[in-house]
Specification:
By secondary structure, this protein is an alpha/beta fold. The chain has two domains: about 10-240, Phosphoenolpyruvate-binding domains (TIM Barrel, Alpha-Beta Barrel), CATH 3.20.20.60; about 245-280, no CATH class. Helices cover about 40% and strands about 15% of the residues. It has helices spanning about 10-20, 30-40, 50-55, 65-80, 100-110, 125-135, 150-155, 165-180, 190-200, 220-225, 245-260, 275-280, and strands at about 25, 45, 85-90, 115-120, 140-145, 185, 205-210, 215-220. It has an eight-stranded parallel β-barrel with strand order 1-2-3-4-5-6-7-8, surrounded by seven helices. α8 (about 165-180) runs parallel beside α9 (about 190-200). The chain starts with 9 loop residues before the first helix and ends in a 5-residue tail after the last helix. Homodecamer; pentamer of dimers. Catalyzes the reversible reaction in which hydroxymethyl group from 5,10-methylenetetrahydrofolate is transferred onto alpha-ketoisovalerate to form ketopantoate.
Length: about 290
């Protein structure tokens, strides 16, 4: 029997950065996917607002609500024994007053039982990060392609391709670190910039489409397992299993068996005893 892993903590994540041990992170949105990820040895699980895209079928993450994040976080934390569970703060739930931000983060921690929260943005969010940290909420930042700002940045494009953007992103990362962030997600930025930022920070960087120099990597559950067999493959995603095709084939086989009366067979049914048959039908059935 495999030895049970100790829970991943903020201290453990910092030690992984210091010892150059890569951090493996995935998204999960329900009990079973979280349990499987945890049992596989994933270090961190993100209950991402990407659920808007992959669970709800939305075009962006913007429609996801705080109640929906809490609902899915409850399912994930109920399943996880070791991984460090982080939940996204949805669009416009952390851009008002500090009281507003603290209240919303508190709900995620208290009701969803998350270990921390993630928010998108840079230096402008430093006061919120500091306030959350002082309140006992571990915070992960998110820079580069920030999906909640997709309409501002002009679509899903690689970020940090010029010197101005690069300098701004490093400044943002340092501001988040100084405010108390425990890690920073770097999404869809150039490999050179990701390496530069990673080397400048004392907290871990978690990359997605940011190359191999980050301290860790994160992928969306549905992307890495090809849950949608017809989805266009993203360049930065490695597919580890063709789950969607297997599920669709399984449904197809089931439909064919039902239509041809191959299912259920005799082995899938239950027989009553003669007393019950006599009561129901007035005679036993052969």
């Amino acid at each position: 029997m495999a030895q049970e892993r100790k829970p991943v903590t903020t201290v453990k994540l910092q030690k992984m950065k210091a010892s150059n041990e890569p951090i493996a992170m995935v998204t999960a949105y329900d009990f079973l996917s979280a349990r499987l990820a945890d049992e596989a040895g994933v270090d961190m699980i993100l209950v991402g607002d990407s659920l808007g895209n992959v669970i709800q079928g939305q075009e962006s993450t913007l429609p996801v609500t705080l109640d929906e994040i809490i609902y899915h976080t409850k399912m994930v934390t109920r399943a996880v024994k070791s991984a460090f569970v982080i939940a996204d703060m949805p669009f416009m739930t952390y851009h008002g007053s500090l009281d507003h931000t603290l209240h919303n983060a508190g709900r995620i921690m208290r009701e969803g039982l998350a270990k921390g929260i993630k928010l998108e943005g840079g230096e402008e969010l430093a006061p919120a990060v500091k306030a959350l940290t002082l309140a006992g909420v571990p915070v992960i930042g998110h820079l580069g392609l920030t999906p909640q700002s997709v309409h501002v940045i002009g679509g899903y494009r690689v970020q940090g391709k010029n010197s101005e953007q690069a300098r701004k992103m490093l400044k943002d990362a340092k501001a988040l670190q100084e405010a108390g962030a425990i890690a920073v997600v770097l999404e869809l930025i150039t490999e050179e910039l990701a390496e530069w930022i990673t080397n400048q920070l004392s907290i871990p960087t978690i990359g997605i489409g940011a190359g191999a120099s980050c301290d860790g990597q994160v992928l969306v559950f549905h992307d890495m397992l090809a849950y949608d067999p017809d989805d266009r493959r993203k360049k930065f995603v490695k597919v580890y299993a063709e789950v969607g095709r297997a599920i669709r084939d399984g449904f197809g086989d089931y439909v064919n068996d039902v239509k041809s009366r191959k299912f259920p067979s005799e082995s899938h049914g239950f027989k009553g005893d003669n007393e019950v048959l006599q009561y129901l039908y007035g005679s036993t059935l052969k």
